Each structure stands twice: as C-alpha cells, then as structure tokens.
C-alpha cells in the first residue's frame, strides 16, 4: 500500500479555499476610478455603507490532484466550477485558504481571447509564444495544430482574421494551440463541447496523451459523456461547496440522480410507423 502511495505526486493542493466576489451596488461615486479604488480598499462595515454585496462563490473546498490524473468538474450552473478553475490558474485571489501548484497551470477556456483582428496563422504563433514555446517549436508543430483543429477542412480559414470564425471554429483552434504543448497542469473549461464527434474524439485522445506525459488535466463540462470518456475522477461542486469527490462512475451516478439528467444515455429508437394502406377500389 505504501508503495502505491509514494507514486502519487501532488500537482495541485486546495486547502480550505473560499472565493468571494464583491459586487458593487448603487453607492455614491460609482463609475469614478478613484471611487473604484476606494471601494477595493474598504472592507467590512465600509463595504456595506458603499452598497457592496459579497457573493460567496466557493466555500471551504479542499482536494489534492496528482500527476497523471484527469479530473472532471461538474455541477449545475453557478456552482463555482469555472471560478475554482480560475483560482487554480492564479487569475482569481482566494479569500481564505491556500492553493498550491507544482508547475505552471495553463487555463484554456472557450472565452479565452486571442486577437480577433489577426489571422488564425498569426494567432497560432501568438498563442504558442504565450505558452512559452519558441518560434522554432511553433513552426515544427504548426501543421499539426491546423490539422488537429480542422478549421481548414472547408477552405483556407487559417489565413482569415479570427473575427470571421464561428465560435466553434475559434474554440477548436484555441484547444489545438494549447494541446500542442505538454502541460504540468492543463485546465479546460468546456472546450470539448465544441465541434463534431470526430474533433471531440481527437481531443479526448490528446488529453490521454497529456496524462501519459505526467501532466494533470482538469475538465469543466456539462457534457457527462465527455467527463465519463475522459476522466477517472470527478469533483462535484454545488452552490460553491464540494459535494462529492471520487471515481467518475460513482460521482456521475449520484449527480445524475440529483439533476435527473440522462442526456448522455442512449435513447430508445422511435418505433416505425406503418405506412397508411391504399384505399380499396370501389366495387362496380
């Protein structure tokens, strides 16, 4: 037992994490840069006086992720999944508790913006450089990135500005750029919900490759089938609290019972309706 435990290398540790949003109300001076700075500095009673409302998005969440794991984050809308992912990436501060990471987390979300006025080709280089790849590495992987995304299947879209892309095309290109590099911790927010089944299959295979290269993958998705096909462990958040943490099958079973969602189960085929019979010929 001890031998197996020693092989588990922690990559992300969340220890009693609280994340609180402060939403400005109708206090005086709203819209002024100076007033905004003052609101940031005020806390407690001063916040109440300024009409600042506290929204507790994540409450006392603790977990340990290990190298080689693919972990799904599930929960109903507003449960805190994306908020927690942003905190792990270092994009949001925590109110209480701590988040420790081994290596650099990389967040990939469907809303992660590249440069809409630049071509897809230029954005491949921009995204690659932002992830720490050299120009030579990007050149070596460029064709693979474009082919993986599939955006050139119906034309030379890679040479067009990204503002001309559909949301699905842009999301597929973002995932393809991120997937071109091996990550210590890759955080994916709904990227697998875009594209056809063929692209989703390629994405799932790539996630398995990332795990084999000792990475850790977090996947936020409302598609239970993507979670089931990709992840071996699931964290279920509900109203900001960690409701369950365990093997994918066990957690999804409880979650589906909670939500009544069976959308990824095979549906019964509709019964064939017999064609109406031709009316009998009238007798003479």
TrEMBL record:
Residues 271-284 have a biased composition (Low complexity). The keyword Transport applies. It comes from Streptomyces doudnae. Residues 258-284 are annotated as: Disordered. CDD domains: ABC_KpsT_Wzt (cd03220). This is ABC transporter ATP-binding protein. Belongs to the ABC transporter superfamily. Residues 41-264 form the ABC transporter domain. Residues 258-267 have a biased composition (Basic and acidic residues). It holds the Pfam family ABC_tran. Keywords: ATP-binding, Nucleotide-binding, Transport. One of its GO terms (molecular function) is ATP binding. The keyword Transcription does not apply. InterPro entries: AAA+_ATPase, ABC_transporter-like_ATP-bd, ABC_transporter-like_CS, ABC_transpr_TagH-like, Bact_Polysacc_Export_ATP-bd, P-loop_NTPase. It comes from the Bacteria.
């Amino acid at each position: 037992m001890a031998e197996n435990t020693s092989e588990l290398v922690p990559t992300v540790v969340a220890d009693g994490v609280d994340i609180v949003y402060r939403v400005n109300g109708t206090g005086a001076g709203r819209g002024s840069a100076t007033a905004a700075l003052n609101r940031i500095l005020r806390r407690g009673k001063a916040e109440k006086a300024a009409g600042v409302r506290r929204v507790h998005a994540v409450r006392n969440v603790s977990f340990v992720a290990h190298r080689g794991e693919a972990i799904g984050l599930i929960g109903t809308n507003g449960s805190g999944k994306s908020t927690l992912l942003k905190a792990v990436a270092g994009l949001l501060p925590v109110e209480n508790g701590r988040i420790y990471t081994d290596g650099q987390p990389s967040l990939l979300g469907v809303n992660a913006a590249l440069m809409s006025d630049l071509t897809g080709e230029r954005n491949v280089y921009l995204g690659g450089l932002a992830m720490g790849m050299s120009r030579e590495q990007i050149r070596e992987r460029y064709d693979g990135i474009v082919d993986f995304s599939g955006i050139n299947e119906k034309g030379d879209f890679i040479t067009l500005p990204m503002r001309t892309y559909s949301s699905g095309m842009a999301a597929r290109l973002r995932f393809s750029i991120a997937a071109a590099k091996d990550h210590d911790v890759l955080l994916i927010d709904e990227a697998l919900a875009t594209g056809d089944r063929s692209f989703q299959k390629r994405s799932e295979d790539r996630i398995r490759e990332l795990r084999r290269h000792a990475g850790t993958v977090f996947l936020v998705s409302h598609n239970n089938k993507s979670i089931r096909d990709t992840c071996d462990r699931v964290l279920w958040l509900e109203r900001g609290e960690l409701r369950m943490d365990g093997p994918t099958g066990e957690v999804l079973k409880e979650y589906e019972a909670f939500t009544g969602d069976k959308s990824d189960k095979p549906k019964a085929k509709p019964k064939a309706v017999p064609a109406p019979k031709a009316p009998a010929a009238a007798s003479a």
